[in-house]
Design goal:
The protein has about 160 residues and is α+β, with helices and mostly antiparallel strands. Helix content is about 15%, strand content about 40%. Strands 1, 2, 3, 4, 5, 6, 7, 8 and 9 form a nine-stranded antiparallel sheet that branches. About 25% of the residues are buried.
Length: about 160
C-alpha cells in the first residue's frame, strides 16, 4: 500500500446523515447511500459529480455517524430532506482501497502505518470518540462503484505526534 500526506481545504457538502450501531449497517446504511445516489440530480452544484463521499465519525458506542454526501459549491441550496455538513481544512493520510482487496486488511495496514509514522489520528477537542485509532474516516467513492467490490480512496485526518 502507498500512503500520501495531503492537506485538503475546507469544503461544504450536502446529502444524508445516518447514525447507528455496527449491527444496524446492513441494510440501513446501504439504503441511505442509495437514497443519496437516487437524489443526485437534486444536487446541481457538485464540485466533483463523479465522487460520492462517505464521512464517518465514531462518536457512538459500538457504532458511528455517517454522512453520505456530495461536495458542493456555496451556491447549492440544501434540498428538502437533506443536510449540510462543512468539513474544515485538515491534513490527512490518504491511501486507496483497491477492488478485490479485503477492506478490513486495508484498514489494518493503514492503522499499522499510522502507528509506525510520525502522525496520530486527529481528535476534535471535547468530542468523545469510540474508535481511538481512527475516529474519523472519510471515504471517496466513484459514483459508479460496485458495493460488493468497492474501490475507493481513504482519508484519515492526522496531526503530528
Amino acid at each position: 500500500m502507498s500512503y500520501e500526506i495531503v492537506t485538503l481545504p475546507a469544503y461544504r457538502t450536502v446529502g444524508l446523515k445516518w447514525e447507528g450501531t455496527f449491527s444496524e449497517i446492513v441494510p440501513n446504511l446501504k439504503n441511505v447511500i442509495q437514497q443519496v445516489k437516487d437524489c443526485a440530480d437534486e444536487v446541481g452544484n457538485k464540485i466533483n459529480p463523479h465522487v460520492l463521499l462517505g464521512l464517518s465519525y465514531h462518536v457512538i458506542e459500538n457504532g458511528f455517524v455517517h454522512y453520505s454526501v456530495y461536495q458542493v459549491s456555496e451556491e447549492q441550496e440544501i434540498p428538502d430532506g437533506m443536510i449540510e455538513l462543512r468539513v474544515p481544512e485538515w491534513t490527512y493520510v490518504k491511501t486507496t482501497h483497491c477492488k478485490g482487496e479485503d477492506v478490513q486488511k486495508t484498514y489494518t495496514d493503514l492503522h499499522q502505518w499510522l502507528f509506525n509514522s510520525d502522525y496520530t489520528a486527529y481528535k476534535e477537542a471535547g468530542v468523545v470518540y469510540y474508535d481511538l485509532n481512527m475516529p474519523i474516516k472519510h471515504e471517496h467513492y466513484p459514483v459508479d462503484h460496485v458495493p460488493n467490490h468497492p474501490h475507493f480512496d481513504i482519508y484519515i485526518p492526522i496531526v503530528k505526534k
